[in-house]
From TrEMBL:
This is Xyloglucanase. PANTHER family: OLIGOXYLOGLUCAN-REDUCING END-SPECIFIC XYLOGLUCANASE-RELATED, XYLOGLUCANASE (EUROFUNG). Gene3D superfamilies: 2.60.40.290, YVTN repeat-like/Quinoprotein amine dehydrogenase (2.130.10.10). The keyword Hydrolase applies. It comes from Streptomyces griseorubens. The keyword Signal applies.
Amino acid sequence: MRRTHVLTAVLALAAGLLAGGPPALAADAPSPAPAAVSPAADTYTWHNARIDGGGFVPGIVFNRGEPDLAYARTDIGGAYRWQESTHGWIPLLDSVGWDDWGHTGVVSIASDAADPDRVYAAVGTYTNDWDPGNGAVMRSADRGASWRKTDLPFKLGGNMPGRGMGERLAVDPHDNDVLYLGAPSGHGLWRSTDAGVTWTEVASFPNPGNYAEDPADESGYASDNQGVVWVTFDESAGTAGSPTRTVYVGVADKENAVYRSTDAGATWERLAGQPTGYLAHKGVLDAENGHLYLAYSDTGGPYDGGKGRLYRYATATGTWTDISPVAEADTYFGFSGLTVDRQNPGTVMATAYSSWWPDTQIFRSTDSGATWTQAWRYTSYPERENRYVMDVSSSPWLTWGADPAPPEQTPKLGWMTEALEIDPFDPDRMMYGTGATIYGTEELTRWDDDTPFTIRPMVRGLEETAVLDLASPPSGAPLLSALGDIGGFRHTDLTRVPSMMFTGPNFTSTTSLDFAESDPDTVVRVGHADSGPHVAFSTDNGAHWAAGTDPSGVTGGGTVAASADGGRFVWSPEGAGVHHTTGLGASWSASQGIPAGAIVESDREDPETFYGFKSGRFYVSRDGGATFEASSATGLPAGDSVRFKALPGTAGEIWLAGGAAGGPYGLWHSTDFGETFTELPGVEEADTVGFGKAAPDASYPTLFTSARIDGVRGIYRSTDAGASWVRVNDDAHQWGWTGAAITGDPRVFGRVYVATNGRGVIYGDPADTGGGTDPDPSGACEVTYRVTHAWGDGFQAEVRLTNTGTTAWDGWSLTWTFPDGRRIAHLWNGTHTQSGTSVTVRDADWNRTVTPGASVAFGFTASGPAAEATPSAFALGGRTCTVR
């Protein structure tokens, strides 16, 4: 996330979410619970339109017991596991459903060093009423492939102030059935003694915290007590099988920030002599040298922080030493990111997380903080010298298309750098989170030789954008997106990261976009901006843009519509009423007869017709947006949680979705320019509607919606104008809240693009197409199948497929037969279908090309015993492969 307009974006996202609380779940409930009623379903394969990153990563956790096992947490987009074979990330919380959307915000994550198959996530997005549900602790015995969940009696705030502090959740290294959780909002410290199944408050813990970013904030967002913020065990103080005796806990209290227990949590005391006037963002222990390192800031972050210190506490003597790399008077930032090198005790690193300008800073010491070097320094101001080289060729948009004057550089080293970790098994590997990505290096020790090392994005597979609008034109790029915080993208290839977000101008968030149906090269977008116009136009399908002008009073993007022929535009911005223009927005005129804040859309056939909706009333203009009249339609949703679209190819035909609990809430259809609407029976709730290519045996465009039908929430498709619906997602692919936008692809039957609130743009294809064509390889193939982990009722396996022929494959499809009782639960680096014992795994688009001699690997978790699970034969496109 970028610093500017962050709270505005948070409010906008929260405002669009459903009101009302989710149903209570029993403790130890599996997640997700199976639907009681399931409509007819089609099998789809699901992918992200690749952006790679795009949001704040506040936490990275390496497992201390197994190499190459790491997790990342995001503030609104779930959790991920590192996959070493692909140097990418695997999403772990896509099964979180609509009613529990808040559980896509991850406030903390903990990986069990004694049993690396166990991982825990503390989830919940807001502690105020923006999130109607309480928080939960999710636990997995298969590295996040499946989860069970225990609801908590209070809320957690994965997207609240202070979310970069931590980790709040920790597993006891000596007794891994014991976990601690630091709670916000004055709820104190909590403990589980049965591996996260049940939780009780630690009554003896004396301080629930008292710091709030802004106690006067009436929304509850900035005024909440940030609470107990981290837990650290001293592994030198205990024996296997018994709870660790010494535990340190950080509290959001500037006068009493650090506590310790020496009797396994029975009693607690404030550490004597500790610094005051600061919050301890992190507490990291080097048990070998007996040093507890602490990173302090004057605020909770992640955006603010003007002063900070680093301290070292000697656990044996109680001595405090200020080891800050710069004098307090020279700080304009707080410290947060903090890590030690487990292979080289005495090596410690920290970040100046809130140094926005000219860049963040990273510090490194190899003598326990006695002396420091830094990632960059001034030579002769404003010129600077870097120890590192930035290579963002895999995510080129990270330059933001900027050309800053020194001492700023592009790409930046980062901002909001609260997560920083050295791989405990590899001193050369470091990862750190920023407001937009995960950066890392595998050459870290070059730092100490003053040899340049390369920092690259290490974020592939981690998609964390909040999607506000989508468009799929009939020609040109298949996908245009409007995104929070990073503006939006033009995807010409869904499997590749676009070279740049929309620029010229840049919007901090794009709130709405549209194209002319009969002239798809004409595109308009509107959004939030630090300065300058809030509207931009393109005449080449979104490849290049020119800023328009704003009507007086505009403060934000709102919604925008392009006429069918691209000659007129209607804009309903924030801060001003609805306006219309001809040409490309050189001047605007106020529209009459429609209230400010209305949602606007265009007819896709008649260039003179535009539509609007506000507070239960539908409005129609037949003169290019100059004047509107309210239609006679009744029974529509009373509020403004509505999204509607006009059908391409037919003038006056409109589909409208929306509503809220307790009032009209569903899907409506009009064929008379919105004068009347008919509610579709059987659609209990609907929040989005979009159109795609008609089915091969149909003439009406395919409809898509995010809705509840027959009691089941999901993504639905209709090929018969809404007479019947098929659910196309499944319980493993729900992505929390999907109510912002949906569209089909007018060129590919069945393809649907789904907007998520933190998991980026998801697109799906019917599994029988797999998003591509079946391969017909002309050469030989070889398969290596290996079970990597096993537990009582399941196992994990990796498969490597090698092209041993002489011709490259453009797509691949590997099949095998499992013994009875084995079923794949989760697969990465490919897409799979299973019918009985027959399994088919297809490419994941980005790994479809396999040249002669090259290999592609994928992995999966499955239910059933691992013994005798190795298949005896594999086939690639009907050709038998050699098995090694």
